[in-house]
Write a structure and sequence with these properties.
2 helices, dioxygenase, Ectoine hydroxylase-related dioxygenase (Phytanoyl-CoA dioxygenase family), oxidoreductase, dioxygenase activity
């Protein structure tokens, strides 16, 4: 589980850096990189192994 958390943190850090770059120098390229980084973060964060199943009470 700690590998998944580390991967999530790394993906979010890549997004944070890309988004900061897009704020500092807003171009189509920097915006595209930020969007790609966000999509990667969502992919990593929403992996099936990360989803906690909802249990209904009887």
């Amino acid at each position: 589980m700690s590998d998944l958390i580390a991967e999530q943190h790394a993906a979010f850090e890549r997004y944070r850096v890309a988004k900061l770059a897009s704020f500092e120098n807003s171009t189509t390229e920097t915006e595209r990189r930020a969007e790609e980084a966000w999509c990667e973060f969502e992919r990593v964060f929403c992996t099936p192994s990360n989803v906690i199943p909802f249990k209904r009470s009887a």
